[in-house]
Amino acid sequence: MIGGKVGRATSHTIRPAVALLAMASLVLAPVAQAERTRLKPGWNLFSPAQDVELGRRVATDAERQLPMLNDRRVDDYLNRVGKRLAAKAPGEAYPYQFKIVNDRTINAFALPGGFVYIHRGIIEAADSEAQLAGVMAHEIGHVALRHGTNQATKQYAAQVPLAILGGALGGNSLGGLLAQLGAGFAANSILLKYSRDAERQADLLGAQILYDTNYDPRGIPQFFEKIQNESKAGRPPQWLSSHPNPENREELVNTEIERMGGPPRNYKSDSAEFQEIKRYVLALPAPPKQGQGTRPTGGDTGSRPGAPSTRTQSFRNEIVRFEYPDNWRAYTQGNAATVAPQNGIVDNGNGRAAVAYGVIFSVFEPQTDRRGQVTLEDAHEQLLQDIQRNNPRARVSRQSVRVRIGGEGGLSSTLVNDSPVGGREMIWVVSTLRPEGLVFFACVAPENDFDTFDRAFQALVDSVRFPR
Ligand code: ZN
Questions:
Q1: 45 and 105 share a domain?
Q2: Can you tell me the mean pLDDT for 147-153?
Q3: Considering the domain boundaries, does residue 351 fall inside one?
Q4: pLDDT attached to residue 200
Q5: Are 357 and 219 part of one and the same domain?
Q6: What is the mean pLDDT of the chain?
Q7: Is residue 25 part of a domain?
Q8: pLDDT recorded at residue 171
Q9: Ligand 1 centroid distance, CA of 245 (Å)
Q10: Are residues 320 and 272 in the same domain?
Q11: Contact, 178 vs 120, CB < 8 A?
Q12: How many CA atoms, within 13 angstroms, populate the side-chain half-sphere of residue 171?
């Protein structure tokens, strides 16, 4: 929304005395505030506290996967600059923290709640502190405008069933979504791939923040020019994969600077400290060579989970109790749960979370006959159909056989499906009828990895007990 033009058409119909008054109040209004674009966070189902909770969880995982530089001197400097900028961000006061990543590509990203990561390549490429501050202010803009959870909210609202997770589990709670998003860095392109509109907003808010901290706001367009030149030279910076380039970006920011009345008086472009830090970073040893596994976005970049531990931990709720490997994590959604290894839940390529490795436990409500009765065979068949409805590429590969689960008679079937990590996956489904409905376990792993996980799946299903 752009302010400052309302009422202009009617101004010449106002009687002279009133017009004078209006002019007087215009003069009194703070000039810097007069014409800036007003920016507010969009629709969001998460609370600001959940932004922080989610951001913190993903940050922990991100720092395990990224080559962190862990250099106090650089991190302290970034935090000094960053906190000064963040103090001028509108809205919620998030607990901002800034860390340097030992990666020479030009990139930076921010997680909800204020966890900001700056690649060493940004410091090495920036000519001045204002340019670095421009990148940081842009990232702060994404946090303050809550772009990550706004996108997750929109995604949630428009959710077609989340691969097998959504389909089989039925109603997805927001808590469940939070758990999926928090499950790992690799699953998080939802939080990190912004729309062009979000980029535009972060640019404008970034320029306003620079202005309010007395930096030269032209630091932002200057740095974009640099990114463009890199791109033209055939080295598209990673920045552009997570921050798509809006059209006329530089013009837009320059117009905003004009709206604010040009750069602030006595603005700061650079500092001796920045130049010192830049020299220091340039002189550091080259970063370790990285594999593909460290890129922050994209569905296929997460590393493959390690083998399941043979030591176990217990899951229990009102319906069921079972043991699962102690290097997996449990994500609960009401009575349902997913237990999965690190990197077991991934982005299915459309920005949606999908279980690639792990076990889903849930209760399926089968259609019953007029007397409210259903056989195990019928209920199990309905479940398989439901899974196939929600996963159109899924096919039953092994017909139902009778098994025992938790001391009860059950049925077991196997399906094949497209895996969200590429290739095919196997889904081993075991179910039994309980007072709550058809209780089932769906054990998922890629076909060529299934042997590695099969023993853990078997052990989990063997450990099932029904407390009632
Ligand atoms: Zn951005």
A1: yes
A2: 85
A3: yes
A4: 93
A5: no
A6: 81
A7: no
A8: 39
A9: 9
A10: no
A11: no
A12: 6
- Cα(274) to centroid of ligand 1, in Å? 22
Q: Is 210 in the same domain as 62?
A: yes
Distance (angstroms) between ligand 1 centre and the Cα of 59 equals 17
Distance 192 CA to ligand 1 centre (A): 9
* Same domain flag for 267 and 399: no
Q: Ligand 1 center to residue 151 CA distance, Å?
A: 13
For the chain, how many structural domains are there in total?
Answer: 2
Task: Give the largest CA-CA distance in the chain.
Answer: 92
- Centre of ligand 1 to C-alpha 347, Å, is 20
- Is the pTM of the predicted complex or chain greater than 0.70? no
CATH number of the domain that residue 399 is part of: 3.40.1000.10
Are 238 and 107 in contact, with CB atoms under 8 Å apart?
yes
Residue 126 CA, ligand 1 centroid: distance in Å: 17
Q: Alpha helices, DSSP H only, in 193-264?
A: 196-212, 219-232, 239-242, 249-259
Same domain? For 270 and 360 the reply is: no
How far, in Å, is the centroid of ligand 1 from the Cα of 230?
17
Smallest CA-to-CA distance from 246 within 212, 288, 200 is with: 200
Contacts of 50 by beta carbon, 8 Å cutoff, 6+ apart = 149, 178
What pLDDT is recorded for position 45?
79
Residue 434 belongs to domain spanning: 312-462
pLDDT above 90: residue 16: no
Q: Which of 157-161, 193-197, 413-417 has the lowest mean pLDDT?
A: 157-161
Average pLDDT over residues 322-340: 84
457 belongs to a structural domain: yes
Distance 204 CA to ligand 1 centre (A): 11
Is 15 contained in some domain? no
